Amino acid sequence: MAPGQLRVLYALDVARTQLYHFTATVIAGMGFFTDAYDFFAISLVTDLIGYKYYLYQAEVHIPRGVSAAISVIALCGAVPGQLVFGWLGDKMGRKRIYGVTLILMVVTSLASGLSFSKRVGKNVVAVLCFFRFWLGAGIGGDYPLSATIMSEYANKRRRGALIATVFAMQGFGNLAAGIVGMVVAAVFMKSDPSSHADFVWRIVLMFGAVPASLTYYWRMKMPETARYTVLVAKDAKKAASDMSSVLNVNIAPEDEAVNQLTRQGQYGLFSAEFLRRHGVHLLATSVCWLAVDITFYSLNLFMPYIFTRVGLLPTLKKGDNPFKLMIDIAKLHTTIAICGTLPGYFATVALVDRIGRLRIQILGFTMMSVFIICLAAPYDQHWTKPKNKYGFAVMYGMTIFFANFGPNTTTLIIPAEIFPARLRSTCHGIAGAFGKIGAIVGVFAFRYTEDNVPRTLFGLVGCNIVGILFTLLLPETKGKSLEEIAGEIEEQQPQQHADAAASAEHVQVVPV
């Protein structure tokens, strides 16, 4: 037991990996499942929306501004969602705000599919964008809360793997979007597209409410994290009671130790002390997340367009069956999820607590750059021969693999570990908001430079290099207590160190 560490937090750190860890992982992970489904399902139905409302003469032509708005509006909502709900998670508790974000996601997912207007076309798209903005706000709020809850529940030996497992549910959400898209389009394949296109895209978007609604009860059954209860709410008895029940051990409350701890200098987010201790950390986590999301969301949301340009997907024209094209897009989406996205997440889960967060993040940024250069340099030659097209697809899949076995996962893990408990959710929300700003920049940059894809891809390489440089400013966190990483233990007095060490024998826990 580290000097100055409370018994209840020590018990969490050394607890063996057990059922409650897996339960918390599934409950928190379903939020990311829903997030990924809602973010990426829109790329499957954008052409269908264009077929319904923007069919001009011989082909579908969605104005660039409209297409960008449909793709990016949920990301715009995620920025204030991460900032506001992240802050509320520190002020009102992770559990309470967790339920609010889930309800918001369920309601707005359903409302997105029910986006009607007396005047079809532009008005329907405007209503859709309104509800997807608020859907993005709920998704954005889920990021800091899910990551913070899992980091505060986890033991220190497997904390990185547990947070990575939660985030890996995003890969399954991505996969589910492809499968649902294929199934719904197949059901309507033989129907009249002009009459039933509306049903297909609405059903696909509304399905996002299902996984979120199924987990609401279990989210509300989870106790508040002990770290919030004892370090922020200052309720030692409740923290000891909750964790005694969860861990099945007897943990005595430490009222005096908690009172002494909370009387120490509790610096705020905008204080000079925070700037000295964690200013560089907040800057580095924010810039790294911004850099990776520019690349990750650009490649994912514009995957159908990229593969259309290299000849692996056809262009939708008048007389074509839009449901068949949607199935083709969903197949490609699903294949990349199975071959690139999920293996990347699994590799991180397996190795993050062995080789460390920073090595994985640097490796990911580096390999993404290598494969993007391989996509961009011979870009004009990729559609000249069939084998070139499939080589392009393989390199694209490897880019996605190293995004997930790399910064797309580690940028979520690190902010959940390096900040103090009273500011953890807020700082995670700030870093995540920068990530979504990066995603917005990437989407608009790609949309308005789509006539010169190689130049855009080389721009993504530059983003990766920036990510590598700022990763070097971060500390390695594997195998350490959250209080040790954030410097909270250092705030205690020498007498508390001795008292805490002497009392450690009262905690009966089994290390991993």
TrEMBL record:
Does the keyword Ribosomal protein belong to this entry?
A: no
GO CC annotation terms, alphabetical? membrane
Bilayer topology reads: Multi-pass membrane protein
| Primary subcellular site in the record, as a coarse category | membrane
The molecular function GO annotations come to: symporter activity
Keyword annotations for this protein? Membrane, Phosphate transport, Symport, Transmembrane, Transmembrane helix, Transport
Leader sequence segment: none
Q: Which InterPro entries match?
A: MFS_dom (IPR020846), MFS_sugar_transport-like (IPR005828), MFS_trans_sf (IPR036259)
Which GO biological process categories is it annotated with? phosphate ion transport
Q: Which Pfam families match?
A: Sugar_tr (PF00083)
Q: Where in the cell is it found?
A: Membrane
UniProt cross-references to CDD domains, sorted A to Z: MFS_PhT (cd17364)
- PANTHER family (UniProt xref): SOLUTE CARRIER FAMILY 22 MEMBER
Write out the similarity annotation.
Belongs to the major facilitator superfamily. Phosphate:H(+) symporter (TC 2.A.1.9) family.
- This chain's protein is named H(+)/Pi cotransporter
Organism of origin is Urochloa decumbens
